[in-house]
């Protein structure tokens, strides 16, 4: 299966007086069609920086991001990439869900004649069709998070970048969003996911990229990460959380 995304030797260096801070140091990985890849690591590891560069919000110091074989560094609002950073910001709270999505459909370059159909489509995917005419300021946190995913889906992108999609949500709502992510992958959409919820990564990720101090520490399946941690129990394999906690000291910046 061909790679949808190829990240090659990404570096991001910040200069502060006479010091250099290497936010990213030689990051390379691939994502195939319909694959869910999770970036896993402590705060400050570089996960959001990677997402921001791929999404076109930040320029790297060095490296390439290839989408379907074409370098997209320097391209903003790429039509084949949808980005969801989540959170309370990003929408007009006095406007309805449909009105918000109409605004972002323009930014995503969805043709005007197709926008009504497209907005209906993405609201159905995230189970918000029944509140299309409700003002976003009246949405719960879980509804807002689903609306972020709907916004990212405008234009039918090949790749979704989801940064902490269930952060701060209760268990039931978080599960509904995870189910949505699974369904999107089943439809052939490739997903790059960041999350601090180990059970979420364990349930969703086909591949995990363990990152620390701006470098890739390890890449593999949940079983690969568990094996690398060398955590074992008499009666069962270690969980991803137990394995991550064992590896975490090596991932922190010195």
Strand order in the sheet with the most strands = 6-7-8-3-9-10
Which fold name corresponds to the CATH topology of the largest domain? Rossmann fold
Total helical elements: 8
What's the CATH C level of the largest domain?
Alpha Beta
Instruction: Name the structural class.
Output: alpha/beta
- Return the string of H and E elements: EEEHEEEHHHEHEHEEHH
- In terms of DSSP E residues, the strand content is 25-35%
The tally of structural domains comes to: 2
Question: What is the level-2 CATH architecture name of the largest domain?
Answer: 3-Layer(aba) Sandwich
Straight-line N-to-C gap: 39 Å
The CATH homologous superfamily of the largest domain is termed: P-loop containing nucleotide triphosphate hydrolases
Shape: globular
Q: What is the number of beta strands? A: 10
Summarize model confidence as the mean pLDDT.
Answer: 90
Gyration radius (Cα, Å) is 19 Å
Helix content: 25-40%
């Amino acid at each position: 299966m061909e790679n949808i995304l190829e990240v090659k030797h990404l570096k991001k260096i910040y200069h502060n007086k006479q010091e250099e801070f290497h936010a990213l140091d030689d990051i390379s990985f691939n994502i195939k069609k319909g694959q869910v890849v999770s970036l896993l690591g402590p705060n400050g590891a570089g996960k959001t920086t990677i997402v921001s560069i791929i999404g076109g919000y930040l320029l790297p110091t060095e490296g390439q991001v290839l989408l379907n074989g074409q370098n997209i560094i320097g391209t903003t609002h790429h039509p084949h990439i949808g980005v969801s950073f989540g959170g309370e910001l990003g929408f007009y709270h006095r406007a309805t869900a449909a009105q918000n999505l109409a605004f972002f459909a323009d930014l995503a370059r969805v043709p005007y004649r197709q926008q009504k159909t497209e907005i209906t489509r993405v609201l159905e995917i995230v189970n918000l069709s029944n509140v299309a005419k409700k003002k976003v300021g009246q949405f719960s946190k879980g509804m807002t998070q689903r609306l972020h995913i709907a916004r990212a889906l405008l234009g039918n992108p090949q790749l979704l970048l989801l940064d902490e999609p269930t952060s701060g949500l209760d268990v039931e709502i978080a599960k509904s969003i995870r189910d949505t992510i699974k369904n999107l992958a089943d439809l052939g959409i490739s997903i790059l996911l960041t999350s601090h919820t180990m059970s979420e990564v364990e349930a969703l990720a086909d591949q995990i990229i363990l990152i620390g101090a701006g470098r890739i520490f390890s890449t593999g399946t949940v079983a690969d990460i568990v094996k690398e941690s060398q955590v074992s129990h008499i009666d069962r394999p270690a969980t991803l959380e137990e394995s991550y906690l064992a590896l975490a000291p090596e991932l922190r910046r010195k």
